[in-house]
Design goal:
Elements lengths: L3 E3 L11 E3 L14 E9 L12 E2 L4 E5 L5 E5 L5 E6 L13 E8 L4 E3 L5 E8 L7 E3 L6 E5 L2 E5 L2 H4 L3 E7 L5 E2 L7 E5 L3 E9 L4 E9 L4 E3 L16 E3 L10 E3 L8 E3 L1 E5 L6 H5 L6 E5 L5 E4 L6 E10 L9 E7 L2 E8 L7 E10 L1 E5 L6 E9 L1
Parallel strand pairs: 3-12, 13-19, 19-29
Antiparallel strand pairs: 1-2, 3-4, 3-7, 5-6, 5-8, 8-10, 9-12, 10-11, 13-16, 14-15, 14-17, 17-18, 20-31, 21-23, 22-25, 23-24, 24-31, 25-30, 26-29, 26-31, 27-28, 27-30
Length: 384
């Protein structure tokens, strides 16, 4: 039977037209010579080892591929969380997966992170299939790879203000206190599991005791410098958390206007976390899909009108790009013309820290980096 080719309208420009009288398979293009397989990486927010509604894609996870012959290659998860590997049977020069057999995919969490599921290393068998994309099919999918930061509490005790004879401990809501060891600069660092705690500091020479309540959940916590400087009473009532998700629904940039959340803002931009295709923006997002960063890397300020004071409770803080990560983020606060707080944070694009500021009665706040790089903040919490 003679075959008749029928191409109608706009379809005439397509490579595949309807073949009348032919088999259904003849109406389609041949399979692609290459294909992609992916492993999905996610930030396991609730640390339950399962990818569920609480979790978020993780950008920048290194995933190694070990071929049947023992050779290796690697890929990094993109801003949507996918580590992609190109597949094409027999194409040894250009493809990452080019032969049938068992292939192992292994996740390498960045420093300070750990896997939360059994999917860190998994083996998948690929078999040749002439009609499949890339000429192969996988017998199973790559199980999502979950990871979470190792939780800790860290900070610095100002021995100049508190004296030299200090006892510090981390007190869980239920359980025995753990001693916080101070080095010669007053720095402490203590791993701990999720939960509510109180960091307690006692100055034996003066009898003064300072207590800082904190919660460990999604992020490690860094406390502002502990000192005996007199501070005003804390503002009463619940803290207000600014998420930056209610400024714009577009994926563009939005200059944060004065008055947003009840504060004045200068040199802060709100944007969708995927706008710049940067790992730090993705991994620094803790609520919704929008974050804020200091415009053009300039110092970012928040302040109040007519000298009204506010308490800076804390925020999730990250840096946007890997360049210049050795530069610390500086956070300063003023009460009128007096500088009353100055903290520094060492941050990376791999994930946020929660900075438990506890600044009371301030009138102006500044975030800056000496190298004029971008600082990412989310869930900025304060009281007025």
């Amino acid at each position: 039977m003679k075959l008749t080719r029928l191409c109608l309208g706009a379809a005439a420009s397509l490579t595949a037209c309807l073949l009348l009288g032919g088999s259904p398979s003849e109406a389609h293009d041949p399979p692609a010579s290459k294909w992609r397989v992916s492993c999905f990486a996610y930030r396991d927010v609730n640390r339950n080892g399962l990818y569920d509604m609480a979790d978020r894609p993780y950008a920048g996870l290194e995933v190694a591929l070990i071929r049947p012959d023992g050779s290796r290659t690697r890929s990094f998860s993109n801003i949507s969380g996918f580590a992609n590997f190109e597949m094409g049977f027999g194409n040894f020069d250009k493809m990452q997966i080019y032969e049938a057999g068992e292939h192992t995919f292994e996740a390498y969490p960045p420093t300070g992170f750990e896997t939360t599921s059994d999917a860190r290393a998994q083996t998948i068998e690929f078999v040749q299939h002439d009609r499949a994309g890339g000429g192969m099919v996988a017998k199973s999918n790559c199980v999502p790879m979950g990871l979470a930061p190792k939780l800790f509490v860290a900070g610095t005790v100002s021995q100049k203000d508190l004296g030299a004879d200090i006892v510090a401990e981390l007190v869980p809501a239920a359980g025995k206190p753990v001693a916080l060891k101070l080095d010669d600069k007053g720095i402490f660092f203590q791993h701990a599991g999720p939960g509510n705690y109180t960091a307690r500091f006692a100055d034996k020479s003066s009898g003064k005791i300072l207590e800082r309540p904190l919660e460990l959940s999604e992020h490690p916590v860094v406390l502002s410098v502990i000192s005996s400087l007199d501070q005003p009473q804390a503002k009463q009532g619940p803290a207000k958390t600014v998420t930056f998700d209610d400024l714009t629904v577009s994926d563009t940039l939005y200059e944060i206007p004065s008055g947003y959340g009840g504060l004045f803002w200068w040199q802060w931009i709100a944007t969708h976390h995927k706008f710049y295709n940067g790992y730090g923006y993705i991994n620094g997002t803790s609520s919704g899909e929008f974050i804020a960063y200091n415009s053009s890397g300039q110092p970012g300020f928040m302040w109040t009108e007519n000298g009204e004071t506010f308490d800076f409770v804390g925020a999730n803080i990250n840096v946007a790009w890997p360049e210049g990560q050795e530069e610390r983020v500086h956070i300063k606060a003023w009460r009128g013309d007096q500088l009353v707080h100055h903290d520094t944070l060492f941050l990376r694009t791999t994930g946020s820290l929660y900075f438990a500021a506890g600044y009371r009665g301030i009138t102006k706040l500044e975030f800056t980096r000496p190298n004029s790089e971008r600082i990412v903040i989310d869930d900025f919490s304060f009281r007025k």
